[in-house]
Every structure is written in structure tokens, then in C-alpha cells.
Here is the input.
Amino acid sequence: MPLNVHQAAVATLLPTIVARNPQAEVTAQARELRPFAWTLELAMNHLHQEIDIRTTYRRVLFDALFMMGIVKTGLGRTDTSIEWEGYLHDPGQMFCDTIDFDDYILDPACRRREQARFEGHRFRLPLERAKQIWDNAERLSPSYRAYGSQDSAETITGKREINEVEDYVEVVELWLPRENVVLTLPAHGQGTEPLAEVDWQGPERGPFEVLGFMPVSNNPIPLSPIAGWHDLAMFLNTICRKFRRQAEREKRILAYEDIAERDAENIREASDGDTLKVSSVDRLKEIMFGGAAADAQGVMSFLLNMFNYTSGNINLVGGLGADEPTLGQTALLAGRAGVRMRDMVDCMVDMAERVEEKLAWYLFHDPLIELPLVKRIPGSDVEIPVTFSPEEREGDFLDYNFKIAASSMAPRDPEEHFQKLQLLIQGYVLPTMQIAAAQGMVLDIGAIVKKVAKAMDIDDVDEFYRYASPEIAQAMMQVPVIGRPPARAPGQRQSVTVRPGAPRPQQGAGMGQGAGPGRQGQPRQAVTPQPARV
Here is the structure.
């Protein structure tokens, strides 16, 4: 695929929708529960960093663009100290992992996912680990996959041979929502007796969540965006490959008659810009064969524009430029592209909020958790150490609401952030200083400078300011601001330097004012003319 437009679209959408870790927002209607809601919010944001949830959400989004994003949320097993799932999966800690569509299992008879009789996935784990978990795991036999057979996504790298360090077995885990149990079954051909059957003790929605952008009637599998772009992308690359073959066949040759063989040889050996005498120019002729057709290039341009159209103007979303010439048309185009983008962002945020509620459920009901946190009081340097533990838990889980902060996962443009901050300070903060002073509030200049410096990516700005004695502060107030003339006390004479031949200032024209009458509606003050110093 010479023009991999799929990769270009995915590379644009991934950082546009999920660029950073989400910031949880926990609220409570009861006032007495709000302090613990803040503590639970800090614990959830700390958990995001611990399990690297940003990477999980980007993988889910990637899968949803091609098929369907699937997430599994749960609690790590505490019966072993072996972190076989990875170093980010600690025993007893919450996890949030993606499930590949190749391994996903869903009731094929259901029309909607919430109607499914069972939902689960298959996974592989070391044989020794399986024997530690289940007592009847002795009958499990190691499973080996033929890497390079292209039967699953993990074989895309083209591995032909692999030597695993230890034996692996394949098992299936199913959640049965009606029976409220979780079954663990051996792989196909290794018996029908379950390895384990336990009651489901977790959130009501179960361990799985899915992300899809285009629902299909009476079908639990959504329509992926790339499914609608694929045919156009293949057509585009077919024309592009044809254009390439035509360009590769293009050649220019010098044809000559038999009598002009010597002249043709001399022309071949001559350098660019040389002069050469030939017996007859008419017996020599340059001929071009092949070459890319001009209409093929036009078709490619048309298909590129059509792909940009069907993908929701991915060029504008990715900052690659708009096709409309005027500012108004570009703004209109950006608004239309924003409708699709906002819909995709809303779908992603809705899925993330459902996952956040499950993570919060595990945090809230964990009987052994003890997490030290720090509460920083806004507008001050006060820090209050707190501990998230079962002893500090207040109220019931249903008393709290869980949201994702708006635009917390979206990328932040430093220049745009600085402009918004500047607009806020100049348009709202400074004009309301007197109103704030009447209410007993003062403006913290140091905090404003730190915010602006952070937006401008400037460090060590705190070295610009330091606390001084009242005498030094009073003296610094008398220092004129750079770029402004010093203030003149009432009644103080003013000396003006006039260059030879330049007009002298008129009476009543002060420093920085133009000559002529005073302000309209105000009488001009009588000013005694003073001799100017030349």
C-alpha cells in the first residue's frame, strides 16, 4: 500500500482522542461526604498512574477503529506472588486490560450485548501458574501455536519459530450474568469439567466494557470506522500502484539513422551544456516511451479528497490544512469535522466513565488497601496528608458520582493554553481586582506569574520574586515602570528638551499628551508658561 491512508488516519485520531491520563472527578450530594469524595478522587488518579491506563485506552481506541475495543477490569489474584500478567499487575491490585477481538467470546444468539447469556475470553498462562491456581489443572496439556500462520493478530510480525521459556496452557473464562458466576474452562479437546466456578463479586455490569462508534441494529458487533474507508483506500492504492508502474516504465532514448551512428555516440558521451558538431540533426531524434498518465494523477487526487471526506475531514483534524480558501469556509468546515470528532470523543469518554466506576468500586470495597495521599488546598501552599483506607471510608458507594474531567484526555496545545490564560487574566481577573478587594480577597501576583510561566514552558520563575521588608517594598513602588515616563507630582515643573529648529510645545500640553485643547467637556487649566531649556 504505497499510500497507507489507514495508518495516517489512525495516527491522527489516537493522539487527538487519547493523549493523556484521564482525570477522575468524584462528587457527592451530601456535604459531609465531600471530603472523602476528594480522597477517593485522588486515589483513582493515583491508580491511573500505577496501571498506566492511558496506554490501555489508546489500545482500546485502536481496536475500536478497526473492529471493536474490549476492556476487562478486575482485581489481581492474591494467592501467588508471581506477576505472570506483567510487572504492572500486582497481586491484589486493580487492573484494566484490553482483550483482543480474536480472543473475545460473546453469546452469538444475542441481539444486544446486555442480553448475552455469557461473555468472556480465552487467554494463555504458564502451566506451572495454572497448577498453583486450580487443583485439577494436571489434565491440562501445553498448547503450541504455529507462529507465522496468520491466524491471529499476534502473528503479524511474521515469526516462524519461537522457543518459549516455559510451557503454556490455554483456558477460557466466561461470565454468566444471569447465574452471576464465573466459569473457567479448559481449552477445546481437554475435557468439559470446569477448572473453577466462583460467584461473581464485582460491579453489576460485569468485568467487560466495549467501545464502538457505529451501532448496528440487532447486532452486538458495531461497525468500525475503517470498515467504511477500506474499499476507497484499496481503490486509491490500486490507482497509485498503476501510476507507479507507469512512472517506472518511462524512458527517453536517442534514435538515429545508420549514417549518424558516430554522432549519436558523441552525444551520449557529451556532458550537459557541451557543444557538439553533428553531420545532420534530422538524423537524430529523442523519443520518450511510457510515463505516468496525467489523468491517473487527477484520479488519485480525487480519491484522496474523497477519503478525506468519508473520514470526517481527517486532514483538518490532524492539522494538515483545510481545503477551503476563505476563513469563514474553513471555520464552517472545522465545525462540521468537530461534530464527528466530538461524537468519537463522547463515545470514548462514556466507555472510560464506565471503567472508572468499576475501578472506584474495587477501591471503595477493598478491605486491605492503605494508600497515602496529599491534599493540596487550592490557592495556597497548604498540604494535608491523608490516607485512603477502609477505616476512612464514609457512606455507601451509591452516594458518589464518577465522571471524567472534560478534555482531560485531549492534547493540550501550549500556545493555545497561554492565549486562554492571557485572556482570562486581562479580561476577567484584572478588571475585578477592586471588587475582589471589597470582598476581602487580594490578587496573588506570584501565582499568576507561575501559571503564565508554566504555560510558556519557562522554569525557575520563582527566582524572579522574593519577599522584602516594608521599607524596600515601599521604595520599589517609587521605581518607574520600564517603558513608561516617570509620574510627575501636581505642581511640579517640567523640563522639555527641544532640538534646534523643532517646534516648542504648546501651553497645556503635558508629557505624553498631544498639543491642542483639553478633553471635551472639561475646562482647560491655566498653566504658567515656563522657559524651555534648549
Summary: DSSP finds 13 helices and 14 strands in the chain. The radius of gyration is 36 Å. The CA atoms of residues 239 and 384 lie 65 Å apart. The mean pLDDT is 79.
